[in-house]
Amino acid sequence: MARKTILPFGPQHPVLPEPVHLDLVVEDEHVIEAIPQIGFVHRGLEKLVETRDYNQFVYIAERVCGICSFGHGYGYASATEKLLGLEIPRRAQYLRAILEELSRIHSHLLWLGLLADAFGFESLFNHCWRLRETILDIFQRTCGARIILSIVIVGGMAHDIDDSELKAICEKLDTLKRDYREIVDTMMNDSSVKSRLCGVGYISFEDAMELSMVGPFAKASGIEHDMRTTGFDAYGDLDHFEPIISNECDCYGRCKVRCAEVYQSIDIIKELVAKIPHDGIGKKPGPKVLPPDGGQSHVLIEQPRGEAFYYVRGNGTKNIERFRMRTPTSQNLAGMVRALQGVEVADVPMIILTIDPCISCTER
Amino acid sequence: MYTVEFVECPLGDLLTRVQSLKHEGLRFVQLFAEKPEAGMDLVYTFYDVVNDNALNLVVNGITEESEVPSIQGLYFAAFSYENEAHDLYGVNFVNMQLDFGGHFFNVGIDAPMAIISPEQKAAREKAAKVKAAAAAKAAKAAKEAAAKAAAGDGAAEKPAAKPAALTEEERAKKMEAKLAAMDPEKAAKVRAALAAQAAKKAAQKDGE
After folding, report:
1. Under CATH, domain B3-114 is a member of which superfamily?
2. Fold of A43-329
3. Per the count of CB atoms within 10 A, which of A3, A229, A338, B32 is most buried?
């Protein structure tokens, strides 16, 4: 009879540049149970909200994570605007949606590069990150920064993006799409990739529903849940939006969903650029103080890794009483634990990479 | 666009309520704790995909001794939030399927997020003062309106009597009340400016 052993995985691991520790309970080469542990980089950013003006905190929210930074600023600003009852101009909503979709492309390209690197496809990794540079260059040109954009403010946008610039973005995305197709086709049709991903880390539709999974992880198990379908902000003006799903329920399905989401984001950006109104960007400062105690609101937005939750509560002063951010990775930890049960130790890195956890977001 | 709902739920009914939500097919979104003046509050969020409604169950008045039933048996995804609320806020959950025993978040001190910081204390005091001032203002306005109504239309047309000039002592008292309601930093600056003004006046008097 095989003996049970605990195999420590992380927080420093060659394939996982995230500070998460997993106690893998293994029997021979099979994982019986995976127990995650986080908290290595907890920064207490939710607590910091008590000492900052609500307008200042948008910049702190952006610094929660280096990949979905724009989305965090966007989510926080949206929740605060909802609390204050501020209606922001449509153009600002469009610009936010365009930048959020660009962030999604940048996040997925980063992820694809890391996955390729874990396979040992170093040239593919370099090509993915080369393409990602296109998005970072767009950010630098339009926002003045590559990662922490600081363009969202409570009540609108800090500055506008010219129509000519938006047109240039669409042209750059056309080139990116062509190059990206070559990379993705090479990667997804490769026999060694298929042999390592197909049928691995299986999560059925029922399990995904039971575990309330979100994002590409859930979509790859056939769940059609995407907050963009609710039509918040500019997403409501899209002619047609349907979440990309896959019924393969394995690592390969997750890769397929993410790869296809890049094409979808490019199409969304082009449609929004074609429809963008010219009613201003809403630079007016909001009220000096927030609504008194009891005033609370929350928003749900679709980040690259899935649905994210932002909650704010006012206390009648310029500081927010309570800010809560629930990132998609926190929600997917239960799914990750389930996906790792019964797999071989050699498959663990691939499963974790296709789930794409972001511990920096989770720890806040 | 989805709708948002906040509903209060007594601690005793929590498990039954969550059970019925699970039965109705609602998706679990998140759970968080917060620390008001007394006790602790928990907010559970569920999403109704059919009606696009985010339902928030608010459980108020949880103390250190309260035993909060774990919902991991119904929604396993809650394990990370329950362990987080325990490690960072000191909420005592019972019957957890996956219990890290306080070691999910490796933080240096117990329940660090439940500590009321001096800034938060000051903000809460200020909020209470602002609230009291607003209530007093509203009561005064209501009283004046009632007095006007009692005096009749003719009295209302008369110009309001000029308020009597305030004495130096009354003015100082009024200013002190204003400063008490101000942000402490701002109040200190105003005090310094007033002191400088008084010194300047005194110097001018001496010169004369």
Report:
1. NADH:ubiquinone oxidoreductase Nqo5 subunit (3.30.460.80)
2. Cytochrome-c3 Hydrogenase; chain B (1.10.645)
3. B32
Query: Can you tell me which residue has the tokens 């929004």?
Result: A272
Phi, psi dihedrals of residue A89, rounded to the nearest 5° = -60, 155
Expressed in angstroms, the distance from the first to the final Cα of chain A is 43
Per-window interface: A 216-255 vs B, CB < 8 A: 225, 230-232, 236
Which residue of chain A has the CA closest to B53?
A: A230
- Smallest CA–CA distance, residue B79 to chain A, in Å, is 8
Q: Is the pLDDT of residue B157 over 60?
A: no
Domains in chain B: boundaries: 3-114, 118-152+165-207
The tens digit of pLDDT for each residue in A346-361 reads 888 888 888 888 877 7
Residues A331 and A213: beta-carbon distance below 8 Å: yes
Residues of chain B contacting A46 with CB distance shorter than 8 Å = 113
Domain boundaries, chain A: 43-329
Encode pLDDT of A108-135 as tens digits: 999 899 888 888 888 888 998 999 999 9
Q: How many Å apart are CA A237 and CA A271, to the nearest integer?
A: 9
Query: Minimal Cα–Cα distance from B34 to chain A, Å?
Result: 7
Q: Model-level pTM?
A: 0.81
Query: Distance between CA atoms of A315 and A293, rounded to whole angstroms?
Result: 4
In this structure, chain A runs to a length of: 364
Q: Please check whether residue B81 is in contact with residue B31, taking contact to mean a CB–CB distance below 8 angstroms.
A: yes
Question: What ipTM, to 2 d.p.?
Answer: 0.85
Smallest Cβ–Cβ distance between A37 and the set B104, B124, B126 belongs to B104
Q: What is the average pLDDT score of chain A?
A: 87
